[in-house]
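Quick log. Single chain, no ligands specified.
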Amino acid sequence: MAKRWINDLTTQDVTPEHAFLNRRQILAGMGAGAIAGFGMPAMAETLEPNSFEDITNYCNYYEFGTGKDDPARNAHTLTTSPWSVQIDGLVDNPGDYALTDILDKMTIEERIYRFRCVEAWSMVVPWNGFELADLLTMAGIKPEAKYVAFETVLRPDEMPGTRFPVLDWPYVEGLRLDEAMHPLTLMATGLYGKPLPNQNGAPLRLVVPWKYGFKSIKSVVRITLTDSQPPTSWNKANAGEYGFYSNVNPTVDHPRWSQATERPLGGGLFAGKVPTRMFNGYDEVASLYDGMDLARNF
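-> predicted structure:
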């Protein structure tokens, strides 16, 4: 069931890159109505997407290097077609699904989302993709499933960064099932109406806009439904700094820097920091964490 989250955009907004680049104001997100099934009131907001160049040249994708410009320089080596996704675990229809077959069954939407990196910088990205909930429903979710685990492709011959033990490869991530099924949770296949560039996680990546960016795993090749909390790469690397939830939270600092503010990219040399918002401004997800100690479950 696509389109449960309403973008306040017209078909004119979905088009070519120059249309975005020439526009100074684009209304995004929650302006048109409520979020179906969640009953949350709508709020109008004006977002200005970063340029295609900003988004594609300032990336974290350590499989292609740890510098911000390394992915743009090195990720062309990744073969993204053909592509398949293994869906297994607690599902009714496990198997290897060709991406082309998946896309035939999905409704591609445009979502302009805020993106907040754990490193305290941010940008606004016009994604194209489909709701993860639709893919999981297609696979059939067994009642025992409580979590969803994700895995990035691992091809050392094509991914030069994986020749170094920066992390325990392959990169893995996870969500609670209710987080995965939320209408905001997207599987992105493009940005600015173009196919997703390799450095941004082609051909298929997760986007969870209320969490720090590293939760939005790139180049997904496996999705596993499970009844136990799955391991995640940064949590395995340093559990004291990177929690399983990693919700954007200005009241819980990273041990080595504040999360109270962020530096929007593309604002020029004299652009200052701005306050970070709880859940990156996506208040409609707050009910997912009712009763939780978000300082302890960071």
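Residues 9-16, 18-43 have pLDDT under 50 and may be disordered.
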